[in-house]
């Protein structure tokens, strides 16, 4: 697994989101540059659709609550701009890079986790979205503490 280089992570807080609030409605958009290996994490009350490219290789995440328990819901679009023709390759890439993406989210929002340490133990569920049933999955991926 690649490790996060904090010098290559750039974090932006948009209107309505601070380093410690809110929990509900807090959304993450993680994009990257293949050329520079830089990661761009945007936190807002909505996803940063203006940062999403036609490649559709972003990672989207948000805090949700079910039965009084918070969890981090993560979404990746496996099919991308090429439809299901590239799904196998994109699935492999997402699975390889998701630990780094989760580490970037955990590190980039570290002040939030310091304010709410119980969220380090919240489950992470990832929705792999694909028209191909082999890659269309909903999986448990541990908790934020696993990506510190």
Give an overview in words.
- The protein has a single domain, classed as 3-Layer(aba) Sandwich (Severin), CATH 3.40.20.
- The protein is built from 2 helices and 7 strands.
- It has helices at 87-108, 110-115, and strands at residues 9-13, 27-32, 39-44, 59-66, 69-77, 124-129, 137-140.
- A hairpin with a 6-residue loop joins strand 2 (27-32) and strand 3 (39-44).
- The chain is globular.
- 28% of the residues are buried.
- InterPro entries: Staygreen.
- This is Staygreen protein domain-containing protein.
Percentage of residues in DSSP E strands: 25-35%
Domain count: the total is: 1
Strand segment count: 7
Principal-axis shape equals globular
Q: What name does CATH use for the topology?
A: Severin
In DSSP terms, counting alpha (H) and pi (I) runs of 4 or more, how many helices? 2
Span from first to last CA? Answer: 13 Å
Query: At the first level of CATH, what is the class?
Result: Alpha Beta
- Extract low-pLDDT stretches: none
Largest sheet: 7 strands, mixed
| Rg result | 15 Å
Mean pLDDT: 94
Strand order of the largest sheet: 1-3-2-4-5-6-7
Q: Which class do the helix and strand fractions yield?
A: alpha/beta
What's the CATH architecture?
3-Layer(aba) Sandwich
Order of helices and strands: EEEEEHHEE
Helical content class: 10-25%
């Amino acid at each position: 697994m690649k490790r996060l280089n904090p010098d290559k992570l750039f974090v932006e807080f948009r209107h309505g989101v601070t380093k410690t609030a809110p929990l509900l409605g807090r959304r993450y958009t993680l994009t990257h540059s293949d050329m520079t290996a830089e990661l761009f994490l945007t936190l807002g009350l909505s996803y940063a659709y203006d940062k999403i490219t036609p490649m559709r290789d972003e990672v989207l995440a948000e805090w949700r609550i079910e039965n009084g328990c918070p969890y981090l819901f993560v979404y990746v679009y496996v099919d991308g701009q090429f439809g299901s023709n590239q799904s196998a390759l994109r699935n492999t890439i997402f699975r390889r890079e998701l630990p780094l993406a989760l580490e970037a989210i955990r590190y980039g929002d570290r002040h939030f986790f310091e304010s709410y340490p119980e969220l380090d133990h919240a489950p992470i569920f990832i929705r792999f979205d694909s028209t191909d049933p082999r890659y269309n999955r909903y999986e448990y991926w541990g908790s934020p503490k696993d990506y510190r």
